[in-house]
Specification:
The chain is α/β, with parallel strands linked by helices and about 180 residues long. It has helices at about 20-30, 45-55, 70-75, 85-90, 95-115, 130-135, and strands at about 1-10, 40-45, 60-65, 120-125, 155-160, 165-170. Strand 2 (about 40-45), helix 2 and strand 3 (about 60-65) form a beta-alpha-beta unit. It is globular.
Length: about 180
């Protein structure tokens, strides 16, 4: 089985583009518990790249697709509305669904390229994490998954043979901000 972890970036001091010191500390702590990865992809946004480096991993690739949701996607659901709400909005097959399919295609290509039992890491942004799992496994029951992914939280997707078989949320204790 192959796995891909898709996580949200760590904390920053808004409106700054870079991780804050608490964000670096959180990413380091989380990275120490993650194990190794065969391939690592981030968005092109600085905080996603910095999160991966603070976690202790090298970045193999960066993707514009993982960097932002356009206005047509954001108009269909708030990025922080949670897994179930975003999955529900995606099922209306509008712009959000199209975006979910694009991100799912990127993750599928990554999974297919991983070695047997390989592991991939993707670090992007809130909303994109939740939408990605919806694109991969649209019929999963997200009602018990809870709120949107917090800092360094996300999903673990399982790939066997030629398709996604399961996913689970990854939760991390959130530091006081």
């Amino acid at each position: 089985m192959k796995t891909i972890e898709h996580r949200r970036h760590s904390m920053r001091s808004k409106p700054g583009k870079h991780l804050s010191q608490p964000g670096i500390t959180l990413a380091r702590r989380v990275g120490e518990e993650m194990g190794s990865f065969d391939w690592v992809v981030t968005s092109t946004v600085t905080r996603a790249y910095e999160t991966v480096v603070a976690m202790g991993f090298a970045v193999n690739s960066r993707s514009d697709l993982l960097s932002t949701m356009d206005d047509s996607v954001s108009a269909e659901a708030e990025w922080d509305s949670g897994f179930a709400a975003l999955a529900g909005a995606a099922k209306r097959h509008g712009a959000l669904w199209s975006f979910a399919q694009e991100v799912a295609s990127l993750l599928k290509d990554m999974a297919e390229a991983l070695p047997k039992n390989g592991r991939g890491l993707v670090v992007s942004h809130g909303g994109i994490v939740e939408i990605s799992v919806t694109g991969c496994l649209p019929d999963l029951d997200y009602d018990r998954w809870g709120p949107a992914a917090g800092y360094c939280e996300g999903v673990r997707l399982s790939w066997e043979a030629a398709g996604w078989t399961d996913a689970e949320p990854i939760r991390v204790p959130q530091p006081d901000q």
